[in-house]
Predict the 3D structure of the following.
Amino acid sequence: MVRNGANLGASGSVYGLMAFVTMKAPQSSLLLYGLFPMRLWQTMGLIVFAESFFLLRKTKQRREHGDYSQHGGVGISHEAHLAGIGVGFLYYFGVLQGML
């Protein structure tokens, strides 16, 4: 992965949709890995925590080693995931307030 390079994928938009649905129906449930029942708000909290942790780890490795991809980087854009979640929340509030 090239630093400041382009990203390819739709995972950020998927996370945005998940955030929007979580705001619309937070008490809905799903089965995590098909086994563990969780509410959507719990699942989204777990995802935000995990993505934040991985982003902090990624930035720490960049500071220590320079190029992340040469030292165990997997090329996942945690920034895009968190941005997608933020856009999903903002879109929900925009729809709720009648701005969109």
User: Anything to note?
Assistant: The two ends are 36 Å apart (CA to CA). The first helix runs from residue 11 to 24.
